[in-house]
């Protein structure tokens, strides 16, 4: 009996990242009212725009909007399985976060990540720094979130 081949799902090693490559993260995630209320209350964000339907109906949006932090967390989360699962050392930070259009309850969020830059770490041999641009689009292709994130990644084991 021959040994079966096994593949473990993981993110990319530092040396597998290529500048300019765009990774599309699928499937999308339809954000429900329940998702939004749970996230908003769990994070103690009492913004009426997310919780008070009557108040939000009187705003320029005419309804409650999805918490932008939920949108950000979801697009970063969508990238994990493809890019950083088990290979990230540390999330170093965000240099830019923007929300050019709102997400509404029932919208479907699609994520993509562009590799902007890679460089070996100067202080941590065998590791490297990767700059990623995460973009979230709704079901109509409208950009609802954009964030630039820097991560420290493990190099391929020797």
UniProtKB/TrEMBL annotation:
Q: Where is the MaoC-like domain?
A: 19-135
Domain of life, per UniProt, equals Bacteria
Instruction: Report the family membership.
Output: Belongs to the enoyl-CoA hydratase/isomerase family.
Q: What is this protein called?
A: MaoC family dehydratase
Whose protein is this, by species?
Microbacterium barkeri
Taxonomy of origin reads: Bacteria, Bacillati, Actinomycetota, Actinomycetes, Micrococcales
């Amino acid at each position: 009996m021959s040994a079966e081949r096994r593949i473990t799902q993981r993110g990319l090693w530092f040396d597998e990242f290529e500048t300019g490559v765009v990774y599309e993260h699928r499937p999308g995630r339809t954000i429900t009212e329940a998702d939004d209320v749970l996230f908003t209350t769990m994070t103690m964000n009492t913004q009426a725009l997310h919780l008070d339907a009557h108040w939000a109906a009187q705003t320029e949006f005419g309804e409650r909007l999805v918490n932008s932090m939920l949108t950000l967390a979801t697009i970063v989360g969508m990238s994990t399985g493809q890019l950083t699962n088990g290979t990230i050392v540390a999330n170093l930070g965000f240099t830019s976060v923007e929300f050019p259009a709102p997400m509404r309850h029932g919208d479907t969020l699609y994520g993509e990540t562009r590799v902007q830059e890679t460089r070996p770490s100067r202080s941590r041999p065998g590791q490297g720094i990767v700059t990623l641009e995460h973009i979230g689009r709704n079901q109509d292709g409208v950009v609802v979130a954009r964030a630039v994130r820097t991560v420290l990644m493990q190099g391929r084991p020797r």
